[in-house]
C-alpha cells in the first residue's frame, strides 16, 4: 500500500544520482525539482503542484535520479513503489495522459539544450560533480555540498580534484555544524596544496610514507590515500611503492569503499603477484566481501590464507574471522 510521508520545509527528499525505487505524489505543500542546465550548468527549477507526481521517469526506467527534489514548504506526499504506481496508473487513464504531457514537455526542452551543446566539448563527469559541490558550498548550501563532495570522493577517490574535495568537504561539515544551512560568513575555496612527487632520494619518500601512515592513524584517510598514490606514481622506490600500494587499498577499506577496494587489490596483485603483504591483501579482500554480504567469497579468501601455511598475523586473523562466522 502507498505510504504517507511528511517533509519539513528545506528538506531534501532525494538527491541527484540516488537510486530510484519510489514514486511520489504531492498532496500538500510545495516541491521544487532542481537540475542543471546542460548548456550553462546553472540550476533550473521545476515546481510540483499538489496532485502532481514526481520521480516517475527514473523509477520506471530503473536509473538513478536526474534531479534534486527539495521541499519548499512543509509538505505531505504519498510514496508508491513502482508496482503500486503501475497498478494505479493502469486503472486511471488520466494519470497516463498527464505523464505523457509532462514527458513531452521535458523532451522538447532537453532537445533544445542538446542541439545547442552538440558542438561543444563535453564536460567530464568528475569535473561536473565537483563544480556542483563548489556551487553549493559558495552559496552556503552546506548539507548539499557535503553530500556532493562525499559522492565525488566515493566515485573519484584519485580524481584531480580529490584533495580540494576533501578540503571542501571538511569546510562544509564544519560550517553546517557551526552555522546551519544558508547561514554564517562566506567560505573560501582556495585551492588545496597538491602533494608533489618528492625529490632528493629515498629519505624524502620514506618520510612521505610515514607521514601518510600518520594521517591514517588520525583518521584522515583521503589525504593519506593521495599521499600513498603520490609515492606509487613517482616510481622512484620499488619497495616503498609496493608498500604504498597496499596502503592505498587499506585507505579504501577504511573509507568503506569495499567494492573499489576489491577491484583495486585484484588489479594490484596482477602487478605484484608476489607482494610482500600478499596474505594481508587477501585478508582485506576477505573483509571487504564480508562487509558487503558475500560470505562464501570471504570464507574462500580466509581459507586460502590458512592453506598457504605459516604462523603469522594474517593467518591468525583469518582463523578468528572464520571462527566468528561459525566455520
What characteristics describe this protein?
327 residues; alpha+beta; 4-stranded antiparallel β-sheet; 13 helices; 8 strands; 12% strand; globular
Task: Tell me briefly what this model is.
The protein is an alpha+beta fold and 327 residues long. Helix content is 57%, strand content 12%.
Give the beta-strand count: 8
In DSSP terms, counting alpha (H) and pi (I) runs of 4 or more, how many helices? 13
Secondary-structure element order, N to C: EEEEEEHEEHHHHHHHHHHHH
Spatial extent as radius of gyration: 24 Å
Low-pLDDT runs: 117-122, 194-200
Largest sheet, strands/sense/barrel: 4 strands, antiparallel
Measured as a percent range, the helix fraction is 55-70%
Gap between N and C termini, in Å? 41 Å
Relative strand content: 5-15%
Q: Write out the strand line-up for the largest beta sheet, numbering strands in chain order.
A: 1-8-3-6
The best one-word shape is globular
Rounded mean pLDDT is: 81
Structural class, from secondary structure content?
alpha+beta
Q: Which helices and strands appear, and what pairs or packs with what?
A:
Elements: E1 3-7, E2 12-14, E3 22-28, E4 31-36, E5 43-48, E6 53-54, H1 56-61, E7 68-71, E8 75-81, H2 82-90, H3 93-117, H4 125-138, H5 142-155, H6 162-178, H7 202-217, H8 221-234, H9 238-254, H10 258-271, H11 278-291, H12 295-307, H13 313-324
Antiparallel strand pairs: 1-8, 2-7, 3-6, 3-8, 4-5, 4-7
Helix pairs in contact: 4-5, 4-6, 5-6, 7-8, 7-9, 8-9, 9-10, 10-11, 11-12, 12-13
Amino acid at each position: 500500500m502507498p505510504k504517507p510521508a511528511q517533509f519539513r520545509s528545506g528538506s531534501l527528499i532525494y538527491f541527484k544520482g540516488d537510486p530510484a525505487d519510489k514514486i511520489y505524489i504531492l498532496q500538500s505543500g510545495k516541491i521544487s525539482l532542481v537540475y542543471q542546465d546542460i548548456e550553462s550548468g546553472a540550476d533550473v527549477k521545476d515546481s510540483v503542484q499538489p496532485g502532481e507526481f514526481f520521480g516517475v521517469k527514473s523509477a520506471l526506467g530503473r536509473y538513478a535520479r536526474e534531479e534534486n527534489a527539495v521541499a519548499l514548504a512543509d509538505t505531505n506526499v504519498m510514496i508508491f513503489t513502482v508496482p503500486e504506481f503501475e497498478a494505479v496508473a493502469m486503472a486511471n487513464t488520466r494519470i497516463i495522459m498527464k505523464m505523457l504531457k509532462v514527458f513531452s514537455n521535458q523532451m522538447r526542452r532537453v532537445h533544445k539544450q542538446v542541439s545547442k551543446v552538440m558542438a561543444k566539448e563535453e564536460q567530464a563527469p568528475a569535473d561536473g560533480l565537483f563544480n556542483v559541490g563548489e556551487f553549493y558550498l559558495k552559496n552556503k548550501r552546506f548539507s548539499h555540498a557535503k553530500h556532493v563532495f562525499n559522492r565525488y570522493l566515493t566515485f573519484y577517490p584519485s580524481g584531480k580534484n580529490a584533495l580540494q574535495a576533501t578540503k571542501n568537504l571538511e569546510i562544509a561539515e564544519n560550517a553546517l555544524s557551526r552555522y546551519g544551512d544558508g547561514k554564517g560568513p562566506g567560505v573560501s575555496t582556495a585551492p588545496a596544496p597538491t602533494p608533489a612527487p618528492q625529490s632528493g632520494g629515498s629519505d624524502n619518500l620514506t618520510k612521505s610514507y610515514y607521514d601518510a601512515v600518520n594521517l591514517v592513524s588520525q583518521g584522515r584517510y583521503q589525504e593519506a590515500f593521495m599521499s600513498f598514490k603520490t609515492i606509487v606514481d613517482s616510481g622512484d622506490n620499488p619497495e616503498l611503492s609496493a608498500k604504498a600500494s597496499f596502503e592505498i587499498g587499506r585507505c579504501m577499506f577504511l573509507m568503506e569503499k569495499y567494492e573499489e577496494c576489491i577491484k583495486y587489490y585484484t588489479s594490484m596483485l596482477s602487478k605484484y603477484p608476489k607482494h610482500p603483504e600478499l596474505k594481508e591483501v587477501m585478508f582485506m579482500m576477505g573483509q571487504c566481501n564480508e562487509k558487503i554480504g558475500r560470505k562464501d567469497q570471504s570464507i574462500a579468501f580466509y581459507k586460502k590464507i590458512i592453506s598457504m601455511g605459516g604462523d603469522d598475523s594474517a593467518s591468525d586473523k583469518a582463523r578468528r574471522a572464520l571462527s566468528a562466522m561459525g566455520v
